[in-house]
Amino acid sequence: MNWDEFAHWGKHIADWAADYHTTLRDRPVRAQTAPGAIAAQLPPAPPETPEAMDAIMADFERIVMPGMTHWQHPRFFAYFPANAAPPSMLAEMLVTTIAAQCMLWQTSPAATEVEGAMIDWLRQALGLPEGVSGVIQDSASSATLSAVLTMRERATQWRGNREGLSGMGRLRIYCSDQVHSSIDRACWVAGIGQENLVKIGTVPGGNYALDTDALRKRIAEDRAAGHVPAGIIAITGGTGIGASDVLAEVLEVARAENLYTHLDAAWAGSAMICPEYREAFWQGVEGFDSIVFNPHKWLGAQFDCSVQFLKDPTQQLNTLKIEPEYLKTSGDAVTNYSEWTIPLGRRFRALKLWFLIRAYGLDGLRTRIRNHVAWAGEVCEAIRALEGFEIVTDPILSIFSFCAPGDDARQQRLVDAVNADGRIYITQGMHQGRKMIRFQVGQFDCTRDDVMLAAEVIRDIERTLP
Ligand SMILES: *Cc1c(COP(=O)(O)O)cnc(C)c1O
Hints:
By secondary structure, this protein is of the alpha/beta class. About 40% of the residues lie in helices and about 15% in strands.
């Protein structure tokens, strides 16, 4: 492909993108494809000779598009949103075009310096104190793994990386039973082991916070048994129902026990740009050693963009920094962000934050989040009013859960039927041993009408079920 052809197709694809987004409401949210249907349309072997771009693009529309679930659809109420506001997409196009590896300051000084500035903009936006620094990672899973590795190294007096873990005792990490599966996986791959991730129950009602009395007791038992407590992972906005810990209480235990702390605010962290939510969800946050939140969720930055704030980055650097000769750079002291994370190679992720925050202003981003929280409350009341329906967990920010009349199997049948209908997309969850239906509002372009339509769709389809 020469650059004239590239320019032609680039314009075509930009037009296609705008058209795609303006007609999204006409498409079913979840792909209505049977397993194997897409693969069956792909040639079993690669072509030996070049093919024309218009044939490739036509096959993309014909074969690929019917098999896509539309995450940017305004009636996406499943999982959590993975937003991609248009200015952040434009920034990604530029990043893709330049295709720099931004591992060291010298391999793209602008990428490092914009990243530092964006971390500091977001620090201020989220009400964190001066002096907190951070790094942009690909995902919350990677940030959490980095924090767990730091817990491990700190608890082994920085010997784990060198000597391995045998003979180090049973390292223990504590969290509530509402954490995301990325915490389990971080403990698996860090060599902590599932059995040493101690999940504590929550206090009933409220925001389902970690029971810190039970936590204290458990740590004391573990110490008595000769185990090695290494850290606590708290959550602001858990995955199932939005469970949120009382941060100050968790920190009090961590301080008394000298434990490293990590806060998973992957989804709900974005809402903390609105000061009114901080009293209930964010008090004491500045005490955490590590905090992760995903601007690629609620804030609107295109995936991937996960910010990890660090109170004292030297602990994570002592865990992850490695400097073979070919990565050494001479001259002034600079930040080399690849020393802060597990992968060496890194994309220029900060540019989309710069575009996003400037294009909407914090006020524009706050308005969206406030609307989502308000509309989640309204649609929750509309579902509560449906005959036989029950709200299982009340809204925590923009997530709540409900049950239709009937047993677990009927909840699943309703979810499947709603998603086959295609006007909205929802997913199921488990709460206290019972299947329920999760509902979250957070898609960047959704309107109040989109959200309220969901209650009608759910009502109408529930009536058609046996
Ligand atoms: C989405 C989410 C994660 C995982 O985020 P990734 O960036 O996909 O790794 C972890 N924790 C919570 C609470 C989440 O909502």
